[in-house]
Design a protein that fits this description.
heterodimer; A: 471 residues; 2 domains; 19 strands; globular; B: 729 residues; mainly alpha; 8 strands
Chain lengths: 471, 729
C-alpha cells in the first residue's frame, strides 16, 4: 500500500500514472465493484470541435479490390476493351454498371444489396497512395506512413477521444492479417500500449474467429479475482521501479484492468443469440452454415458466415461503446480470374454490408457511425495474364457512409480508364485528416511528442480535410 | 520531400529498373552498400578508453560519442545472469545458478556462465526455434486444404541438433539447400543431410491446385522466396511477374533460380483425397536403414494390426455402391488405411522416411519410378493432373508470372547483382552450385544477414532494422562498420554461431543496464546506437517454458516425433465433424503437455493458444523478427486459462513444500520466479495477500482445507502474470 507521501514522490519522478492507477485500484477495492469508470488514459476527452461521428466501422478489403469493376464506372474502358494501353492491353470490366437511388450513383452488378443504399454512400473516386505494394500500402492505409513504426488510425482515435465504455476495448480488429505489416496495423507504436487494438480471430490462427477466449475463470468469483488482481498490479508497479520501462509496465497494468472489466461485459456483447432470426438472416447468418470466419489459409474470400457475424458483432460493439471496429477481409488480390474472384469476394460481403448499413440506419446509429469500405489500393485497367488485374496505387475508390458524410455523392475521378486520379484527389493523409475531422479532431492538433518531435498521423506533410463531402 | 521521392531512400538511380537491366544498370546497382563486399575496418579510437571490453564496444562507443551520447551504467549481476540465461537457452536461471554467479568474483565469472549455457542442450532448442521462424517451419501444408507432414519434425530436430553442435553456418546452409548432393559414406550423416533439405519441402502448399504446371511454379516460387529471404535478406520472389520494383533483380534472375528449383523434385508426402482436396501427393525420401534415427511412431506394426487394417481395406473394396458420395468417402478411408500400412515395410518395421528434395533425372533418362511413398498406391492418374517438368531443364520466363505465357528460356543461374564470379552449373539441378554461391565468403549478404539476425535476438533490434530486407526498400545499417566487422570475424571464425554469440554477449554493450536515460532517449528513442539494453517481453515459448520450469513441471527430455507424426498422413483438421482431423485439434489444444514449446505440434492456421496469443511466428512466411503486443487477450490467458491455473497450482505445491514458514516460502517464490530475494515490503504484501485472498475465497465457499492451496496458487499465478516475470531486462 502506498502512502500519500510516496504517491507524491513517485508522481514527481515520472511514475505519475502508475501511482494514479494504484490509487484507483485501491478505491475500486474499497467501493466493492461500484462501477466507476476509471478516469485513466481511456477516459472520454474533449474533441477539438463538434464531432459528426462517434464511432468508426472500417471494412478493410485486404488485397486491394478493383475499383473499375465495382464503384467506378468507366464506359470508355468497356468500349476500348482489348486495345493497347501503356505496356499492356485494356481490360473492360466484365460487369454491368447501373445507376442507383435518387442520386443515380453508378455501381456494378457485383454489389446489388449495397447498391440499395446508394443514397447513403459517398464514393471517394480520387483516392491514391504512395506504393503499389501490399505491405507498404496496407501499413500506410492504417498508420499513415510505412517507413517506420507508427500508431494505427484506431489507436490515434482512441488516444484522441478516449472511450465511452471502459469495460470493453475501445479498438477491436477482427481477423487482421499477420502479413502486410501484421500487428503494426492495429498497434499503438509510441502511443501508450492501452490504445492498441484487441484482435479477435485472425485468419492464420485457430480457434473460434468470432470470440475472445478465456473470458471466464471457472474457479473464482470476480470479487476474489479482484483481490488477486490488486496483488498482481502491486507486483507490476514495483516492476516499473525495477528497470522495466514505465510505459511498458503501464501497458501491462492497463491490459489487466481492461481484461478484468471485459469479463463482465464482453460475453453479452459478443453473444448473438439475443438477435432475432430475421436480423441474423439479413446478415447472412444461418445456423446450418459453417461457423468459420475465413477458412483455409486466410488467403481466399470468406467462407461460411463469419463476415456476417462480424458485421453484426461490429454493430453490437458500437452500441456497447467501442470506438473503432475494423473487419479485415482477405482474398482481394485478383491477379488472375478477375471475373470469378470478384464474384466470389463481392458475393461474400455484399449482403452483410447492406444489412449493416440498414441495421445502423434503422437504429439511428448510422448518423453517428462512420462506415468505411475499401482496400489498400486499386487495380490496373490493363489486363494481367489474360483475365486479371495488377496493382494500381495511382487511382482507386474508398467509400464512406453515415457519420457526417454526404450520401449519394461521387467525389473525385480517375482518368477515362481508371488509371490515375485526376480530379478530387484524396491522398491517404487527406483521408486520415478527413476521418479525424468527422470525429471532431484536427489532425494538426492530434499530436504526440516522441523523439523530440510532435508526431501526427498525417506525418510531416499533413493532410487536407475533404470539405466537399461533409454534411 | 515529395511523395515520390519517399520511395527512393536516396538511391533513386537503381530503383524501378525498367526492362532488361543493361550491364551498366547492374553495375550501378552493385554500388548499393549491401551488394558490396563487407569492408574490414580497424576499430575506431574512442575517448573513453576504459569503457570498451572488445572491438564491438569500440564501434558502438565511437558512434555514441560522436552524437554526444553516453551508455548507461552496467546491469547488476542478477539482472545479467537472468538476461543471458533467457537469451541463450530461453529459460530462467535456477536460484543456485544465480547465487553461484553473484558469489563468483573472479574475472571469468561471466565467461563460465556463457560457456555453460552454450554447452547446454537447451541452447539448440532456443536458437533452433529462432531459425525455425525463418524457415517457416510447420508440420502441415496449410492453405485451402490443410494436410499433415508427418515427417516434418525430423527437420525441427535437425535444426536443434545443428545449433547444439555449432555446425558451421556455411555448412548449415549447404545442407539445407543441397544436403542430398553432398557425398558421405556415413549413414547417419547421409540421413541428416537428406533431412536438412526439408527446409525446401516444409513450405505451405495448395494441394488442391489442379494445374501441375501452376503447382510446380508455385512450389518453386515459395522455395525462391524462402531461400533468398532466409539467407540473403532479399525478396527475389517479387521478380516473378515483373522486374523487381526496388532491387536490381530482373525477371531473368528469378527464372534462372526457378530453373534450379524446377529441376528439383520436392518430396513432402501427403495423400490424395476426396473432393479434390488433395491432388498433389509425392513420395518421401527413404533414409538409410542403419542411420540410427527413430521412426517417430510405433516401431512395429504387429501382424494382428496389419491383418485388421487389411481386412478393413478388403471390406471397403468389396462394398459396391453406385452412390458417388459414398464411393468418395470409401476412397478417403481406403487412402488413410493404405497410408497406415504403407508406413511399415513387409516385416512390420516402421519405414524411415523424411521430407526433402532430390534432383530430377537428366533429360533423356528414365523418369521417376522408385521410392513410392505412402499413399502413392492410388496414383495421381485418377485426377489427370500433370503439367510440371519431368527432368532437369532451364525454365522459360513466364510473362507476368502466367503459366501459359512463356517467354525466352533462361539458363539456370543466380542473382547477377551479387555475382562477380558466378559458378557454372555443369550437371544436375544446380542446387549444389546455388548452395556454394550463397554459403560463400564472396557473397556480400550471407554473413551480414546472419550476424544481423543474431544481433537482433540479443540486442532487440537489428543493426539493419529490416532483418529480411537488405534491399533498397529496407533500411540502411545504423552502424555499417560494426556490421561488417561482425560479418568478417564470423567468417574468419569458421562461421561459428556459438562463437559469434559468445563475442556479442561478452561485450560491455550487452551488459548494459536497461534504464531509460532521458537525454539519450530524446536523441535516440529507438536505441539504434545501443546506449542501453532495452527490456523486452519474453516470447511465447520462453514464457510458457519458464512457467513450466518454475513450477517444476518442465519435462526437458526431447520427445520423439510429434503429435502430427503420431497421427500420420491425412487432413490435419476435420473436413467433416468427427472426421480424421478431430484428434489433431485435441492434440494442439492439449494443455497438459509439459515438453518445451519448440516441440508443440505446429499445424498451420491452427496454432496453440499459448503460442498464438503471445505473438509466435506465423508459420506461413519467413519471420525474421516477431511482433510484440500487450493486449487484454493475453491477460485473460494468464488469469483464466486452464494452463495458467494448472501450472500455478504445481508451482504452489512445490513452493509450499520447500519452506517451513510463509516467509521462507515467499522467499522461495521470489527466488524461483524473479531470481532475487523479496524485500521486507514485498514479504509483507505477499502475506497480506494470502490473508485477504483466503478470506475472499472462503466467502466463495471454497472449503477450508483447500483455502491454503488456492491462495498459494493464486499468488504463484499472479507472479507468472506480472511484468517482472514476463519481461527480460
Amino acid at each position: 500500500m502506498m502512502s500519500r507521501r510516496e504517491l507524491l514522490k513517485s508522481t514527481a519522478s515520472g511514475l505519475g500514472y502508475l501511482a494514479f492507477a494504484a490509487l484507483a485500484h485501491d478505491q475500486a477495492t474499497r467501493q466493492s465493484r461500484a462501477e466507476s469508470p476509471s478516469p485513466g488514459p481511456l477516459a472520454p476527452k474533449p474533441t477539438h470541435f463538434e464531432p459528426k461521428a462517434k464511432h468508426v466501422i472500417f471494412l478493410c478489403m485486404d488485397g486491394a479490390p478493383s475499383h473499375v469493376d465495382s464503384f467506378q464506372y468507366k464506359p470508355k474502358l468497356q468500349a476500348d476493351d482489348g486495345k493497347p494501353y501503356a505496356r499492356g492491353k485494356l481490360l473492360g470490366s466484365p460487369f454491368q454498371f447501373r445507376q442507383h437511388g435518387q442520386s443515380g450513383l453508378w455501381i456494378s452488378e457485383l454489389f446489388p444489396a449495397v447498391a440499395k443504399h446508394a443514397d447513403d454512400l459517398c464514393l471517394l473516386n480520387g483516392m491514391h497512395t504512395d506504393l503499389p505494394n501490399h505491405p507498404q500500402a496496407y501499413l500506410q492505409m492504417h498508420c499513415g506512413i510505412f517507413q517506420s513504426p507508427r500508431p494505427s488510425l484506431g489507436a490515434w482515435l482512441l488516444y484522441g477521444l478516449g472511450t465511452e465504455n471502459s469495460n470493453v476495448p475501445g479498438f477491436v480488429t477482427f481477423n487482421p492479417p499477420s502479413s502486410n505489416g501484421g500487428a503494426a496495423n492495429y498497434g499503438s507504436s509510441f502511443l501508450p500500449a492501452v490504445y492498441q487494438g484487441t484482435k479477435i480471430g485472425g485468419g492464420r490462427f485457430g480457434g473460434d474467429p468470432n470470440q475472445v477466449s478465456n473470458l471466464k475463470n471457472p474457479n473464482r468469483s470476480p470479487r476474489t479475482q479482484r483481490v488477486q488482481l490488486d496483488f498482481l498490479q502491486e507486483l507490476n508497479r514495483s516492476a516499473g521501479e525495477n528497470g522495466i520501462d514505465t510505459s511498458a509496465v503501464e501497458g501491462v497494468i492497463d491490459s489487466y484492468e481492461l481484461a478484468f472489466r471485459m469479463q463482465a461485459e464482453l460475453p453479452q456483447l459478443m453473444d448473438l443469440s439475443g438477435e432475432t432470426k430475421a436480423t441474423q438472416e439479413q446478415y447472412g447468418i444461418a445456423a446450418n452454415r459453417a461457423r468459420g470466419g475465413f477458412g483455409g489459409g486466410g488467403f481466399g474470400p470468406p467462407s461460411g458466415d463469419g463476415f456476417g457475424r462480424q458485421c453484426l458483432l461490429a454493430r453490437r460493439l458500437i452500441e456497447g461503446g467501442v470506438r473503432f471496429v475494423e473487419i479485415n477481409v482477405p482474398g482481394w488480390d485478383h491477379h488472375r480470374d478477375l471475373k470469378g474472384s470478384m464474384q466470389r469476394s463481392c458475393g461474400a460481403v455484399d449482403k452483410p454490408i447492406a444489412a449493416l448499413l440498414g441495421d445502423l440506419k434503422q437504429r439511428g446509429l448510422l448518423e453517428e457511425t462512420l462506415v468505411i469500405w475499401g482496400g489498400e489500393f486499386g487495380r490496373s485497367p490493363v489486363v494481367q495474364g489474360g483475365d486479371g488485374r495488377d496493382h494500381n496505387a495511382k487511382g482507386y475508390t474508398i467509400w464512406m457512409a453515415g457519420g457526417g458524410v454526404k450520401g449519394g455523392l461521387a467525389h473525385g475521378q480517375t482518368d477515362e480508364y481508371g488509371y490515375e486520379a485526376v480530379e478530387g484527389k484524396v491522398h491517404i493523409h487527406d483521408w486520415h485528416a478527413t476521418i479525424l475531422h468527422l470525429l471532431g479532431l484536427d489532425s494538426e492538433q492530434l499530436v504526440f511528442n516522441y523523439a523530440g518531435r510532435e508526431m501526427k498521423i498525417t506525418d510531416v506533410k499533413g493532410g487536407n480535410v475533404v470539405n466537399e463531402i461533409l454534411t | 520531400m515529395t511523395r515520390a521521392s519517399l520511395l527512393c531512400f536516396g538511391v533513386a538511380s537503381i530503383a524501378l529498373l525498367g526492362g532488361r537491366p543493361a550491364a551498366a544498370q547492374l553495375q550501378e546497382g552493385q554500388k548499393y552498400w549491401a551488394f558490396q563486399a563487407p569492408q574490414k575496418v580497424s576499430p575506431p579510437s574512442v575517448k573513453d578508453t576504459a569503457w570498451p571490453h572488445s572491438d564491438i564496444d569500440r564501434f558502438l562507443l565511437a558512434r555514441l560519442e560522436s552524437k554526444g551520447l553516453h551508455p548507461v551504467g552496467d546491469a547488476d549481476k542478477r539482472t545479467l545472469i537472468r538476461r543471458i540465461t533467457f537469451d541463450l537457452i530461453g529459460l530462467p536461471p535456477l536460484p543456485q545458478e544465480v547465487d553461484d554467479f553473484v558469489n563468483d568474483s573472479s574475472s571469468s565469472a561471466l565467461e563460465k556462465v556463457v560457456d555453460r549455457l552454450l554447452d547446454s542442450p537447451r541452447f539448440g532448442e532456443r536458437w533452433g526455434r529462432h531459425w525455425l521462424d525463418v524457415a517457416r517451419y510447420a508440420e502441415t501444408t496449410g492453405k485451402t486444404s490443410n494436410f499433415n507432414y508427418p515427417q516434418a519434425w525430423r527437420y525441427r530436430d535437425y535444426v536443434i541438433a545443428s545449433f547444439n553442435a555449432d555446425k558451421p553456418y556455411d555448412q548449415f546452409i549447404k545442407e539445407q539447400l543441397a544436403g542430398d548432393l553432398l557425398p558421405t559414406d556415413d549413414p547417419k550423416a547421409k540421413a541428416e543431410r537428406l533431412i536438412a533439405t526439408g527446409f525446401l519441402a516444409i513450405g505451405p502448399k495448395a494441394l488442391d491446385e489442379r494445374s501441375g504446371l501452376q503447382f510446380e511454379l508455385d512450389v518453386a516460387d515459395e522455395q525462391i522466396d524462402v531461400t533468398t529471404q532466409a539467407f540473403l535478406g532479399l525478396t527475389a520472389a517479387c521478380a516473378r511477374c515483373h522486374d523487381h520494383k526496388f532491387d536490381p533483380i530482373p525477371m531473368q534472375d528469378y527464372y534462372a533460380l526457378a530453373g534450379i528449383f524446377r529441376s528439383t523434385q520436392t518430396c513432402y508426402g501427403t495423400v490424395p483425397y476426396i473432393f479434390i482436396a488433395s491432388v498433389r501427393p509425392t513420395p518421401l525420401l527413404p533414409l538409410p536403414a542403419d542411420c540410427g534415427l527413430p521412426a517417430g511412431k510405433p516401431d512395429r506394426l504387429t501382424t494382428e494390426e496389419r491383418e485388421r487394417i487389411q481386412k478393413q481395406i478388403d471390406d471397403l473394396q468389396k462394398r459396391e455402391t453406385t452412390d458417388q458420395i459414398v464411393r468418395l468417402v470409401n476412397f478417403e478411408q481406403l487412402t488413410l488405411l493404405r497410408a497406415r500400412l504403407d508406413a511399415y515395410d513387409a516385416d512390420g518395421n516402421a519405414k524411415l522416411l523424411a521430407m526433402g528434395v532430390r534432383d530430377k533425372p537428366s533429360a533423356g533418362r528414365s523418369p521417376f519410378g522408385r521410392g513410392r511413398g505412402p499413399g502413392m498406391g492410388m496414383g495421381m492418374g485418377m485426377f489427370g493432373a500433370s503439367g510440371g517438368s519431368a527432368a532437369i531443364a532451364d525454365s522459360p520466363i513466364h510473362l507476368r508470372g502466367e503459366p501459359n505465357q512463356r517467354g525466352e528460356v533462361v539458363p539456370r543461374g543466380f542473382l547477377q547483382v551479387l555475382s562477380r564470379k558466378p559458378p557454372v552449373i555443369k550437371a544436375g539441378s544446380g542446387r549444389r552450385e546455388l548452395a556454394d554461391w550463397i554459403a560463400n565468403r564472396d557473397n556480400p549478404l550471407t554473413a551480414r544477414v546472419m550476424v544481423n539476425r543474431v544481433w537482433m535476438h540479443l540486442f532487440g533490434r537489428g543493426i539493419v532494422p529490416t532483418l529480411d530486407n537488405f534491399g533498397v526498400a529496407g533500411q540502411p545499417p545504423t552502424n555499417p562498420e560494426l556490421l561488417d566487422h561482425l560479418a568478417i570475424t564470423f567468417m574468419d571464425d569458421g562461421w561459428s554461431v556459438k562463437g559469434l554469440i559468445r563475442r556479442m554477449v561478452l561485450s560491455r554493450a550487452y551488459q548494459l543496464g536497461s534504464h531509460l536515460d532521458a537525454a539519450n532517449a530524446q536523441a535516440d528513442p529507438e536505441n539504434a546506437l545501443v546506449w542501453r539494453m532495452p527490456p523486452r517481453r519474453l516470447d511465447a515459448e520462453a514464457l510458457r517454458d519458464s512457467m513450466l520450469s518454475v513450477s517444476g513441471l518442465l519435462d526437458s527430455t526431447p520427445p520423439v516425433g510429434s503429435a502430427v507424426a503420431r497421427m500420420g498422413e491425412g487432413p490435419s483438421l476435420s473436413i467433416f465433424p468427427g472426421g480424421a482431423g478431430g484428434r489433431m485439434t485435441q492434440a494442439v489444444n492439449d494443455t497438459r503437455d509439459n515438453h518445451r514449446s519448440v516441440y508443440l505440434a505446429i499445424v498451420r492456421d491452427y496454432m496453440p493458444e499459448s503460442m498464438s496469443l503471445f505473438d509466435a511466428a506465423d508459420c506461413g512466411m519467413v519471420i525474421a523478427q516477431r511482433q510484440s503486443t500487450t493486449v487484454p487477450s493475453q491477460s485473460l490467458y494468464m488469469l483464466n486459462s486452464s494452463f495458467s491455473q494448472r501450472v500455478a497450482e504445481a508451482a504452489a505445491g512445490r513452493i509450499y513444500e520447500s519452506g517451513a514458514s510463509d516467509e521462507e516460502r515467499i522467499t522461495a517464490a521470489y527466488r524461483l520466479s524473479y531470481g532475487r530475494e523479496a524485500t521486507a515490503q514485498e514479504q509483507g504484501a505477499a502475506k497480506d495477500f494470502l490473508t485477504r485472498f483466503s478470506a475472499a475465497a472462503a466467502r466463495d465457499r471454497v472449503p477450508a482445507f483447500r483455502l491454503n492451496k488456492e491462495s498459494w496458487a493464486a499468488l504463484c499465478q499472479a507472479m507468472f502474470a506480472s511484468a517482472e516475470f514476463q519481461f527480460r531486462k
